[in-house]
């Protein structure tokens, strides 16, 4: 299985999340639960926002996009992981590259969308009188189009560079899915260009968007502190606290994974970190936004009432 000629590498052997056989059932239930909650939660938010006209605002428009990205991410990773736990630990070369493509796409789209959401909160709190003008339907559509387009461009470049590599040292992926860092570690071709492009993408998409988001929140906090009433401060902060929690968790794990050279990839630690942005974050996103948002709660009640009547 190891030390193969490139022409013979038609599939990869994926080690999975854990090699401890006595824990496979426990991990299977854990990841199946995460996937079920992530899928149902994001679909429910999509339905709730779509069927409630009062929620047709920029903030919820971006929340729908976030749900679609989370569904793309978890559906790309978790089903194959569950299959791996049931005993099928191989993945074809084409399926591996496809999985990497869609995951990288969702990863880039998510960080870009976080920036768009931060800008929306910045305008809402710092420029409330001009909000309807600065965040009109055309602006929202352009921001969403930019999110999806730039993320597609990023994943297309990185995936094209991956397809140029030869895999002749080993076909054993020491991870639970096909991600760029562990795949680069397997290549017998020079990966310098790939690592440079990954680094550039991480600086631009990861650290760049993180800095813009933090700058937005610095302005937001400054504006909130100028509000005289305590109730007004609480109300203003509640509109952006959920987004700040999600962003902090997501960025810390993504930047940690991609800002380093592939040679420093450490299997066990990086697997745990990867779980956070591939499974845990998509699961928590709908819960955080739903449980902390009164408008969404009201919309959910209307949806449940509608289905009860049916």
Automatic annotation (TrEMBL):
MF-aspect GO terms: G protein-coupled receptor activity; olfactory receptor activity
Record keywords: Cell membrane, G-protein coupled receptor, Membrane, Olfaction, Receptor, Sensory transduction, Transducer, Transmembrane, Transmembrane helix
Gene Ontology CC entries for this record: plasma membrane
Transmembrane segment boundaries: 26-47, 59-78, 98-119, 139-157, 196-225, 237-259, 271-291
Pfam families noted in UniProt: 7tm_4
Protein's cellular compartments: Cell membrane
Alphabetical list of CDD domains matching this protein: 7tmA_OR13-like
Membrane association type: Multi-pass membrane protein
Keyword set includes Cell membrane: yes
Annotated ranges, domain G-protein coupled receptors family 1 profile: 41-289
Protein name as it appears in the record: G-protein coupled receptors family 1 profile domain-containing protein
Origin species: Sarcophilus harrisii
């Amino acid at each position: 299985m190891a030390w193969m000629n490139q022409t013979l590498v038609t599939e990869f052997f994926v080690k999975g999340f854990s090699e401890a056989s006595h824990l496979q059932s426990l991990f299977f239930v854990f990841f199946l639960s995460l996937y079920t909650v992530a899928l149902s939660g994001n679909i429910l938010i999509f339905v709730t926002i779509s069927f409630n006209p009062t929620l047709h605002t920029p903030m919820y428009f971006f929340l729908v996009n976030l749900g679609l990205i989370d569904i793309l991410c978890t559906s790309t990773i978790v089903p194959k992981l569950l299959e791996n736990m049931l005993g099928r630990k191989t993945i074809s070369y084409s399926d591996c590259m496809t999985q990497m493509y869609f995951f990288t796409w969702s990863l880039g789209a998510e960080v870009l969308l976080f920036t768009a959401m931060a800008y929306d909160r910045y305008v809402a709190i710092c420029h409330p009188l001009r909000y309807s003008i600065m965040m009109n339907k055309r602006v929202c559509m352009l921001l969403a189009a930019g999110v999806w387009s730039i993320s597609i461009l990023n994943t297309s470049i990185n995936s094209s560079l991956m397809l140029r590599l030869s895999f002749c040292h080993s076909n054993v992926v020491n991870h639970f899915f096909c991600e760029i860092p562990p795949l680069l570690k397997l290549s017998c071709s020079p990966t310098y260009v790939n690592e440079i492009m990954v680094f550039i993408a991480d600086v631009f998409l990861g650290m760049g968007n993180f800095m813009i988001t933090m700058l937005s929140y610095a302005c937001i906090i400054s504006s909130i502190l100028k509000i005289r009433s305590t109730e007004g401060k609480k109300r203003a902060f509640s509109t952006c606290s959920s987004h700040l929690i999600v962003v902090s968790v997501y960025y810390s794990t993504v930047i940690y994974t991609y800002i380093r050279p592939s040679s420093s990839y450490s299997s066990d630690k990086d697997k745990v970190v990867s779980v956070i942005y591939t499974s845990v974050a998509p699961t928590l996103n709908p819960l955080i936004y739903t449980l902390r948002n009164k408008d969404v709660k009201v919309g959910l009640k209307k949806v449940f009432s509608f289905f009860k009547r049916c």
